[in-house]
Amino acid sequence: LVKELEKHRFSMGQVQGVPLPGDTCDAWDTIYNFQAREDDVLVATYPKAGTTWAQEILDLILQEGDAKKAMRAPCFMKVPFIDLFPPKPMTSGLDLANAMTCQRLIKTHLPIQLIPPSFWEKNAKVVYVARNAKDCMVSYYFFQKMNKGLPEPGTWDNYFSSFLSGEVPWGSWFDHVIGWWKARDKHQILYVFYEDMIEDPMREIRRMVKFLSKDLSEDVLETIKHHTSFQAMKNNPMTNFSVLPSVVFDQSISAFMRKGTVGDWKNHFTVAQNNVFDEEYKKKMEGQDLTFHTHG
Ligand code: A3P
Questions:
Q1: Which of 32, 105, 172, 233 is the most exposed place for a label (fewest CB within 10 A)?
Q2: What distance, in Å, lies between the first and last C-alpha atoms of the chain?
Q3: For this UniProt entry, which residues form the secretion signal (predicted)?
Q4: Does the predicted TM-score (pTM) go above 0.90?
Q5: What's the CA-to-centroid distance between 258 and ligand 1, angstroms?
Q6: Over the range 195-217, which residues count as b (16 or more CB within 10 Å of their CB) and which as e?
Q7: Is residue 134 lining ligand 1, measured as CB closer than 6 Å?
Protein backbone atom coordinates (compact mmCIF):
# COMPACT_ATOMS: atom_id res chain seq x y z
CA LEU A 1 0.00 0.00 0.00
CA VAL A 2 2.83 2.41 0.86
CA LYS A 3 4.45 1.79 -2.55
CA GLU A 4 1.13 2.26 -4.33
CA LEU A 5 0.63 5.52 -2.46
CA GLU A 6 4.08 6.84 -3.33
CA LYS A 7 3.21 6.26 -6.97
CA HIS A 8 -0.08 8.11 -6.49
CA ARG A 9 0.76 11.19 -4.50
CA PHE A 10 1.98 13.53 -7.19
CA SER A 11 0.17 12.18 -10.20
CA MET A 12 -2.42 14.65 -11.46
CA GLY A 13 -3.99 14.98 -14.89
CA GLN A 14 -6.86 16.84 -16.54
CA VAL A 15 -10.24 16.04 -18.07
CA GLN A 16 -11.65 18.83 -20.26
CA GLY A 17 -9.35 21.28 -18.49
CA VAL A 18 -10.37 20.21 -14.98
CA PRO A 19 -7.45 19.02 -12.80
CA LEU A 20 -8.21 15.54 -11.48
CA PRO A 21 -6.13 12.76 -9.91
CA GLY A 22 -4.17 10.84 -12.54
CA ASP A 23 -5.98 7.56 -11.94
CA THR A 24 -9.33 9.30 -12.35
CA CYS A 25 -8.16 10.60 -15.74
CA ASP A 26 -6.92 7.14 -16.75
CA ALA A 27 -10.32 5.62 -15.93
CA TRP A 28 -12.30 8.51 -17.38
CA ASP A 29 -14.26 6.57 -20.00
CA THR A 30 -15.43 4.08 -17.40
CA ILE A 31 -16.44 6.85 -15.00
CA TYR A 32 -18.28 8.84 -17.66
CA ASN A 33 -20.18 5.73 -18.75
CA PHE A 34 -21.27 4.92 -15.19
CA GLN A 35 -24.85 3.64 -15.19
CA ALA A 36 -27.08 5.48 -12.75
CA ARG A 37 -30.39 4.08 -11.48
CA GLU A 38 -33.66 5.96 -11.08
CA ASP A 39 -33.62 5.81 -7.28
CA ASP A 40 -29.94 6.80 -6.88
CA VAL A 41 -29.24 9.81 -4.70
CA LEU A 42 -26.08 11.63 -5.68
CA VAL A 43 -24.22 13.77 -3.14
CA ALA A 44 -22.23 16.28 -5.15
CA THR A 45 -19.79 18.76 -3.64
CA TYR A 46 -16.61 20.66 -4.16
CA PRO A 47 -14.08 18.95 -1.83
CA LYS A 48 -14.39 19.93 1.84
CA ALA A 49 -17.86 21.44 1.53
CA GLY A 50 -19.40 19.03 4.03
CA THR A 51 -19.79 15.93 1.86
CA THR A 52 -19.42 13.43 4.69
CA TRP A 53 -21.86 15.32 6.86
CA ALA A 54 -24.55 15.45 4.16
CA GLN A 55 -23.92 11.80 3.29
CA GLU A 56 -24.50 10.74 6.86
CA ILE A 57 -27.72 12.76 7.13
CA LEU A 58 -29.01 11.36 3.84
CA ASP A 59 -28.12 7.80 4.77
CA LEU A 60 -29.93 8.19 8.10
CA ILE A 61 -32.95 9.58 6.25
CA LEU A 62 -32.98 6.57 3.92
CA GLN A 63 -32.54 4.26 6.96
CA GLU A 64 -35.39 6.13 8.69
CA GLY A 65 -33.20 7.12 11.63
CA ASP A 66 -31.82 3.65 12.36
CA ALA A 67 -28.38 4.58 13.70
CA LYS A 68 -27.27 0.95 13.91
CA LYS A 69 -27.91 0.48 10.21
CA ALA A 70 -26.12 3.75 9.47
CA MET A 71 -23.07 2.24 11.21
CA ARG A 72 -23.09 -0.86 8.98
CA ALA A 73 -19.88 0.23 7.22
CA PRO A 74 -17.41 3.12 7.05
CA CYS A 75 -18.85 6.10 5.16
CA PHE A 76 -16.54 5.60 2.17
CA MET A 77 -17.75 2.01 1.76
CA LYS A 78 -21.49 2.61 2.12
CA VAL A 79 -21.43 5.75 -0.06
CA PRO A 80 -19.18 4.96 -3.03
CA PHE A 81 -17.09 7.81 -4.41
CA ILE A 82 -17.25 7.21 -8.16
CA ASP A 83 -14.57 9.63 -9.34
CA LEU A 84 -11.67 8.47 -7.20
CA PHE A 85 -9.53 5.41 -7.69
CA PRO A 86 -7.89 4.54 -4.39
CA PRO A 87 -4.60 2.63 -4.35
CA LYS A 88 -4.92 -1.15 -4.45
CA PRO A 89 -5.93 -3.21 -2.51
CA MET A 90 -8.81 -0.80 -1.77
CA THR A 91 -11.93 -1.30 -3.89
CA SER A 92 -12.91 1.51 -6.22
CA GLY A 93 -16.14 3.39 -5.66
CA LEU A 94 -17.28 2.38 -9.15
CA ASP A 95 -16.95 -1.30 -8.31
CA LEU A 96 -18.68 -0.80 -4.96
CA ALA A 97 -21.55 1.08 -6.59
CA ASN A 98 -22.01 -1.45 -9.38
CA ALA A 99 -22.20 -4.28 -6.85
CA MET A 100 -24.92 -2.62 -4.72
CA THR A 101 -28.41 -4.06 -4.90
CA CYS A 102 -30.15 -1.68 -2.48
CA GLN A 103 -30.93 2.00 -3.08
CA ARG A 104 -27.64 3.80 -3.56
CA LEU A 105 -26.21 7.00 -2.16
CA ILE A 106 -23.30 7.98 -4.38
CA LYS A 107 -20.61 10.60 -3.82
CA THR A 108 -18.96 12.79 -6.44
CA HIS A 109 -16.77 15.88 -6.51
CA LEU A 110 -17.19 16.36 -10.25
CA PRO A 111 -18.19 19.74 -11.66
CA ILE A 112 -21.58 19.54 -13.34
CA GLN A 113 -20.28 19.36 -16.91
CA LEU A 114 -18.41 16.13 -16.10
CA ILE A 115 -21.26 14.24 -14.42
CA PRO A 116 -21.94 10.90 -16.14
CA PRO A 117 -24.97 11.66 -18.40
CA SER A 118 -26.80 8.60 -17.16
CA PHE A 119 -27.66 10.49 -13.94
CA TRP A 120 -29.63 12.99 -16.02
CA GLU A 121 -31.18 10.32 -18.26
CA LYS A 122 -32.46 8.53 -15.16
CA ASN A 123 -33.54 11.82 -13.55
CA ALA A 124 -31.74 10.85 -10.33
CA LYS A 125 -31.91 13.19 -7.33
CA VAL A 126 -28.84 15.22 -6.45
CA VAL A 127 -28.04 16.95 -3.19
CA TYR A 128 -25.38 19.58 -3.82
CA VAL A 129 -23.59 21.05 -0.81
CA ALA A 130 -21.75 24.35 -1.20
CA ARG A 131 -19.45 25.93 1.38
CA ASN A 132 -17.95 29.40 1.34
CA ALA A 133 -14.65 29.54 -0.54
CA LYS A 134 -12.50 30.85 2.31
CA ASP A 135 -13.35 28.04 4.71
CA CYS A 136 -13.18 25.51 1.86
CA MET A 137 -9.67 26.69 1.06
CA VAL A 138 -8.47 26.35 4.66
CA SER A 139 -10.13 22.96 5.08
CA TYR A 140 -8.70 21.69 1.77
CA TYR A 141 -5.20 22.90 2.68
CA PHE A 142 -5.19 20.83 5.86
CA PHE A 143 -6.80 17.92 4.03
CA GLN A 144 -4.17 17.89 1.28
CA LYS A 145 -1.51 17.79 3.99
CA MET A 146 -2.94 14.71 5.66
CA ASN A 147 -4.39 12.86 2.65
CA LYS A 148 -1.46 10.99 1.16
CA GLY A 149 -3.36 10.31 -2.05
CA LEU A 150 -3.45 14.01 -3.04
CA PRO A 151 -0.58 16.33 -3.96
CA GLU A 152 1.28 18.07 -1.12
CA PRO A 153 -0.28 21.50 -0.75
CA GLY A 154 3.08 23.29 -0.24
CA THR A 155 3.14 26.44 1.90
CA TRP A 156 -0.09 28.21 2.84
CA ASP A 157 0.97 31.17 0.65
CA ASN A 158 1.43 28.95 -2.37
CA TYR A 159 -1.76 27.09 -1.68
CA PHE A 160 -3.70 30.33 -1.45
CA SER A 161 -2.67 31.17 -5.04
CA SER A 162 -3.23 27.64 -6.37
CA PHE A 163 -6.72 27.49 -4.90
CA LEU A 164 -7.70 30.91 -6.23
CA SER A 165 -6.55 29.98 -9.73
CA GLY A 166 -8.27 26.58 -9.58
CA GLU A 167 -5.03 24.57 -9.72
CA VAL A 168 -6.15 22.03 -7.13
CA PRO A 169 -7.78 18.60 -7.50
CA TRP A 170 -11.32 18.96 -8.96
CA GLY A 171 -10.46 22.43 -10.20
CA SER A 172 -11.92 25.85 -9.56
CA TRP A 173 -14.24 26.35 -6.59
CA PHE A 174 -15.90 29.19 -8.57
CA ASP A 175 -16.71 27.11 -11.65
CA HIS A 176 -17.98 24.31 -9.42
CA VAL A 177 -20.44 26.22 -7.23
CA ILE A 178 -21.65 28.41 -10.14
CA GLY A 179 -22.07 25.51 -12.56
CA TRP A 180 -24.23 23.54 -10.11
CA TRP A 181 -26.17 26.66 -9.07
CA LYS A 182 -27.17 27.40 -12.65
CA ALA A 183 -28.37 23.84 -13.19
CA ARG A 184 -30.51 23.60 -10.08
CA ASP A 185 -33.80 24.17 -11.88
CA LYS A 186 -32.96 21.98 -14.87
CA HIS A 187 -32.58 18.76 -12.88
CA GLN A 188 -33.71 17.39 -9.52
CA ILE A 189 -31.06 19.25 -7.53
CA LEU A 190 -31.35 20.34 -3.92
CA TYR A 191 -28.76 23.08 -3.35
CA VAL A 192 -27.69 23.21 0.29
CA PHE A 193 -25.23 25.53 2.04
CA TYR A 194 -22.85 24.27 4.71
CA GLU A 195 -23.34 27.53 6.61
CA ASP A 196 -27.11 26.93 6.68
CA MET A 197 -26.53 23.42 8.03
CA ILE A 198 -24.42 24.93 10.84
CA GLU A 199 -26.97 27.66 11.52
CA ASP A 200 -30.02 25.40 11.70
CA PRO A 201 -29.30 21.72 11.10
CA MET A 202 -32.91 20.67 11.70
CA ARG A 203 -34.21 23.04 9.04
CA GLU A 204 -31.77 21.62 6.49
CA ILE A 205 -32.48 18.03 7.54
CA ARG A 206 -36.19 18.72 6.94
CA ARG A 207 -35.41 20.11 3.47
CA MET A 208 -33.54 16.91 2.62
CA VAL A 209 -36.33 14.72 4.01
CA LYS A 210 -38.86 16.54 1.85
CA PHE A 211 -36.61 16.35 -1.20
CA LEU A 212 -36.36 12.57 -0.80
CA SER A 213 -40.17 12.40 -0.41
CA LYS A 214 -39.88 10.85 3.05
CA ASP A 215 -42.18 11.34 5.95
CA LEU A 216 -40.36 10.99 9.26
CA SER A 217 -41.53 11.55 12.82
CA GLU A 218 -40.11 14.32 15.01
CA ASP A 219 -38.33 11.67 17.10
CA VAL A 220 -36.61 10.28 14.06
CA LEU A 221 -35.58 13.77 12.96
CA GLU A 222 -34.09 14.41 16.42
CA THR A 223 -32.18 11.14 16.23
CA ILE A 224 -30.78 12.12 12.84
CA LYS A 225 -29.73 15.52 14.12
CA HIS A 226 -28.09 13.95 17.16
CA HIS A 227 -26.13 11.34 15.19
CA THR A 228 -24.87 13.86 12.67
CA SER A 229 -23.60 16.52 15.08
CA PHE A 230 -19.91 17.34 14.67
CA GLN A 231 -19.05 15.72 18.00
CA ALA A 232 -21.02 12.54 17.29
CA MET A 233 -19.42 12.16 13.87
CA LYS A 234 -15.96 12.93 15.27
CA ASN A 235 -16.40 10.11 17.79
CA ASN A 236 -17.94 7.68 15.30
CA PRO A 237 -15.33 5.33 13.77
CA MET A 238 -17.61 4.87 10.74
CA THR A 239 -17.54 8.60 9.93
CA ASN A 240 -14.21 9.89 11.26
CA PHE A 241 -12.03 7.84 8.86
CA SER A 242 -10.04 6.36 11.77
CA VAL A 243 -10.34 2.95 10.08
CA LEU A 244 -7.98 4.15 7.34
CA PRO A 245 -4.28 3.57 8.07
CA SER A 246 -2.08 6.64 8.53
CA VAL A 247 -0.32 5.93 5.22
CA VAL A 248 -3.63 6.92 3.59
CA PHE A 249 -4.95 9.63 5.96
CA ASP A 250 -2.37 10.82 8.49
CA GLN A 251 -4.66 12.24 11.13
CA SER A 252 -1.70 13.11 13.37
CA ILE A 253 -1.11 15.94 10.86
CA SER A 254 -4.75 17.06 10.81
CA ALA A 255 -7.93 15.30 11.89
CA PHE A 256 -10.52 14.56 9.19
CA MET A 257 -13.15 15.97 11.55
CA ARG A 258 -11.00 19.05 12.03
CA LYS A 259 -13.08 22.00 13.29
CA GLY A 260 -16.49 21.96 11.65
CA THR A 261 -17.10 25.70 11.95
CA VAL A 262 -17.85 28.75 9.82
CA GLY A 263 -15.18 31.46 9.75
CA ASP A 264 -12.03 29.49 10.57
CA TRP A 265 -10.47 31.28 7.58
CA LYS A 266 -9.97 34.29 9.87
CA ASN A 267 -7.32 32.30 11.74
CA HIS A 268 -5.36 31.69 8.53
CA PHE A 269 -5.85 34.49 6.00
CA THR A 270 -3.51 37.48 6.35
CA VAL A 271 -5.06 40.92 5.85
CA ALA A 272 -3.27 41.18 2.50
CA GLN A 273 -4.54 37.75 1.39
CA ASN A 274 -8.05 38.70 2.37
CA ASN A 275 -7.86 41.79 0.18
CA VAL A 276 -6.53 39.85 -2.79
CA PHE A 277 -9.19 37.23 -2.25
CA ASP A 278 -12.08 39.69 -1.99
CA GLU A 279 -11.03 41.45 -5.18
CA GLU A 280 -10.73 38.22 -7.14
CA TYR A 281 -13.99 36.95 -5.68
CA LYS A 282 -15.85 40.06 -6.82
CA LYS A 283 -14.60 39.56 -10.38
CA LYS A 284 -15.36 35.87 -10.55
CA MET A 285 -18.81 36.06 -8.93
CA GLU A 286 -19.92 39.16 -10.80
CA GLY A 287 -23.44 38.85 -12.16
CA GLN A 288 -24.19 35.67 -10.18
CA ASP A 289 -27.14 35.59 -7.83
CA LEU A 290 -25.29 33.19 -5.54
CA THR A 291 -24.26 34.41 -2.10
CA PHE A 292 -22.43 32.80 0.79
CA HIS A 293 -22.04 33.57 4.47
CA THR A 294 -18.41 33.62 5.52
CA HIS A 295 -18.78 34.50 9.19
CA GLY A 296 -19.88 32.15 11.93
P1 A3P B 1 -13.08 21.52 8.55
O2 A3P B 1 -11.81 21.05 7.92
O3 A3P B 1 -13.29 23.00 8.33
O4 A3P B 1 -13.22 21.15 9.97
P5 A3P B 1 -15.87 16.86 3.33
O6 A3P B 1 -16.67 15.80 4.02
O7 A3P B 1 -16.53 17.47 2.15
O8 A3P B 1 -14.46 16.42 3.09
O9 A3P B 1 -15.80 18.10 4.35
C10 A3P B 1 -15.05 18.02 5.54
C11 A3P B 1 -15.35 19.25 6.36
O12 A3P B 1 -16.67 19.14 6.91
C13 A3P B 1 -14.40 19.41 7.54
O14 A3P B 1 -14.30 20.83 7.77
C15 A3P B 1 -15.19 18.70 8.64
O16 A3P B 1 -14.80 19.05 9.94
C17 A3P B 1 -16.60 19.20 8.32
N18 A3P B 1 -17.63 18.35 8.92
C19 A3P B 1 -17.78 17.02 8.81
N20 A3P B 1 -18.83 16.57 9.54
C21 A3P B 1 -19.37 17.68 10.12
C22 A3P B 1 -20.48 17.89 11.01
N23 A3P B 1 -21.22 16.87 11.43
N24 A3P B 1 -20.73 19.16 11.41
C25 A3P B 1 -19.98 20.19 10.98
N26 A3P B 1 -18.92 20.05 10.15
C27 A3P B 1 -18.61 18.81 9.72
A1: 32
A2: 40
A3: none
A4: yes
A5: 7
A6: bbbbeebeebbebbbebbeeebe
A7: no
